[in-house]
Amino acid sequence: MSQSLDLLVLGNAIVDLIAHAEEDFLVKQGVTKGAMQLVDEPRAENLFEVMGPATVVSGGSGANTAVGAALLGAKTGFVGKVHEDELGRLFSHDLKATGVRFDVPPATEGPTTARCFILVTPDGERTMNTYLGACQGLSPDDVDEATVRSARVTYLEGYLWDPPAAKDAFRKAVKVAHSAGNAVALTLSDAFCVGRYREEFLELIRNGSIDILFANIGELQSLYQTDDPDAAVAALREERGGQGTHLLGLVTRSSQGALVVRGGEVRAVDAFPVREVIDTTGAGDLFAAGFLAGYTRGIDYVSSARLGALAAAEVIEHIGARPQRDLLALAREHKLI
Amino acid sequence: MSQSLDLLVLGNAIVDLIAHAEEDFLVKQGVTKGAMQLVDEPRAENLFEVMGPATVVSGGSGANTAVGAALLGAKTGFVGKVHEDELGRLFSHDLKATGVRFDVPPATEGPTTARCFILVTPDGERTMNTYLGACQGLSPDDVDEATVRSARVTYLEGYLWDPPAAKDAFRKAVKVAHSAGNAVALTLSDAFCVGRYREEFLELIRNGSIDILFANIGELQSLYQTDDPDAAVAALREERGGQGTHLLGLVTRSSQGALVVRGGEVRAVDAFPVREVIDTTGAGDLFAAGFLAGYTRGIDYVSSARLGALAAAEVIEHIGARPQRDLLALAREHKLI
Fold first, then answer.
1. Check whether domain A5-333 has CATH 3.40.1190.20, yes or no
2. Where is the signal peptide (chains A, B) (predicted)?
3. Helix (H) / strand (E) containing B19
4. Which of the four CATH numbers 3.40.1190.20, 3.40.50.12780, 3.40.50.2300, 3.90.79.10 does domain B5-11+60-81+98-103+138-333 have?
């Protein structure tokens, strides 16, 4: 993987098992609607037993972003850990079939490939239960320095803070990327994930580890511990204000579109209309994909954010977080590429 | 499984791997568009390598019918063989989660669970490549006599003629069902499947093994070796004309709806309008599901065929051959149940 990349993504390599569920099923199972919760193997088994018929699609927040960016023409690589089993094979196949380079060897020992049991309620909202499995084997050794140096942007999932060794892989990637003069992006992943690692994420932002930050408004409120969305955006606007190294912030707000926050300025971008909200899984991941595909092409921030909004709209209209339509054709239709 | 059933389905237990493909990909791979072809393991591996990102959904023609009928309120059981592996577990889970009884033990030796690589072209047409795997282990021992006796209708897939031992399971089920005074239904499955077993299928129809026959117009033309659809319907109308034991024939004709053929009469039933044809996989299976759910409830043939047309329309509008909407609610909306 020595050829230069636009984007290198580090993330948890997860296969999604998606099932429809009624609201009262979530209550009965004691899961928090709209959140991602970590589950152990027995709990994963039990959830599978009681949930409805499943559709299996490769997922993982960062991997969804990698696929979206590749489909929009960005040269993209992925770093994450699967096990050598059926689901791991499916995950690798799906990445490569969309043109994402992925050459981290699968684990031959230890737990099976990670799976996320996604319960989609009639309103299209998804509730995620993740068994991390093989992801926990991701280590700094899986991060190839030459590859990181070759990538214009290295993008990191906040969820990587969950498997302990992955955190070290994350830190290594930041160091190598910055020593090569490349940008580092982070997605806060989930309001509850922010709740678990709030201090560490703030530290990464404030010590300059992060150049581009992706967050939805709930995650940003969790980061700044405020009930007021405007106060959260204001706090982000002030980050590193006096240091010269501006933070670029992208804040998504569901149907209200997104905000581009930089150098004390906030610009709003509209959401794209959606025919019917079927499953919101991956909307944030695809926003990041679209933005980064635009950004690494040298398109301005606001147009890049429009591209993000377009990619997000596509995955909301069907089950699963991987695009089903030709994103590049769609982007051309809207004159964004 | 001793409680009485409305419907018992015998079929190949298959997991579908569905990918989008362009027309020229089919040409390059040398596969016949619209058909089901059997592939061996190396060919299956190779197809998986070169095809696009896959969505995994439980399938199998007969199993799709079982699920559809159960969702429409019919007490349904399924007989088919999976291996004790991840895909086999997914298949079993999906059947049970929709209320289908399934207690054939998985194979612990021999080939892995069957998979069908389905290539969906931009026109929504599906081309299927099936690796039969564990299905080939289905034997007469898997057919429980008490269960067959308890079922009002035993429904058989024509595809069962492919794995050699399954044919014996099929014959045992016919014998037991008829000795208990129950009806036996058969679907011709596929024009190419009819091409492989034409004489045997005609023999089953003519010796009275089959009471209800499902076929699409292409399969019927293949059965009667004619280019003329009307001639094929006419030939079906004359089957067993003088024997008193009328054959009930259901002939589907895509957007032209279906025909109910019985006792020398032919009645036409319209198709339901479809918003957008996304993937026609399972349309015939769901037609049979709707018809049999109506039939075993004691609804007249024409209304049962309407119910079949409604169920077929639902699966055409999305990827995969298993319903995603609440079929029973849909049927009630249209005052068919």
1. yes
2. none
3. strand B14-20
4. 3.40.1190.20
